Amino acid sequence: MAKKREINVQNIPIAVVDHNNSDYISITDMIKAKKGNFFVEHWLRNRNTVEFLGIWESINNPNFNYVEFDVIKSHAGLNSFKISVKEWAAKTNAIGLIAKAGRYGGTYAHKDIAFEFGSWISPAFKLYLIKEFQRLKEIESNTHQLEWNFRRSLAATNYRIQTDAIKEKLIPWGDTPQKSDVYIYAEEADLVNLALFGLTAKQWKEQYPEIASGHKTIRDCADTHSLIVLSNLENLNAVWIRQGVGKKERYEMMREAAIDQLASLQKYLAAPSTIESPNKKKMSELLQAKK
């Protein structure tokens, strides 16, 4: 599980964690809002609960064990029926409920199931839970968007540094027509694109025409990790241009740097990328090439 976040619902702190790229909410925390001596197992005994969980798993879990589920459902609601979260997960291969020990321990439910669990506590609690969860996601979305905008601006600034190096070392300004300047700039920009994304800007537009039709570019669709590396590559390229390093050598060095830096970011920056990028497949292939 990734680092815990927290929301406050009717003065009760409730943990939210990322598990398999989905938000899971602590129903161990949530049950504190229900008056009386109740446990998650009491909710699991209910036949309606079991049927709801079965439907959710059938939609979201291709490895769900329907045979065991049918056995459990046939006993649900009986006075003798009792099952724990761990037993439920072990018998049915369920993924919607997880029981964790140690740090951030307790029972967590996928947000869809947690909202349903909120109804068992009270309709009001469920509504407040949804409201606070949405507030958390809005805050996270705004934070990540600001971060992405900053990285994009940084990359744009470094692109200017790179074009200054091109003007200084690659373009004979007194002799070269204006149309040739544009060609050389694009060629150098695509050298960086190829090293990082494995595609030129034109190839990207041809591969993702629907996205490109919305006036998006290959760099607009990069995630924050890619933009960090992009910024670094443009700086390196500017330095190597001034040093007179040839294009083939610069491409090979940038590609090696991109692979190393992406691998480092993937290892040390645990937070997943928040912007879905059509470049991800190419980035994955780039990392695989290193192995």
From TrEMBL:
Annotated Pfam families:
KilA-N
Positions of the KilA-N domain = 3-136
Mind telling me what this protein is named?
A: KilA-N domain-containing protein
Organism, by scientific name, is Chitinophaga niabensis
- Organism classification, top ranks? Bacteria, Pseudomonadati, Bacteroidota, Chitinophagia, Chitinophagales
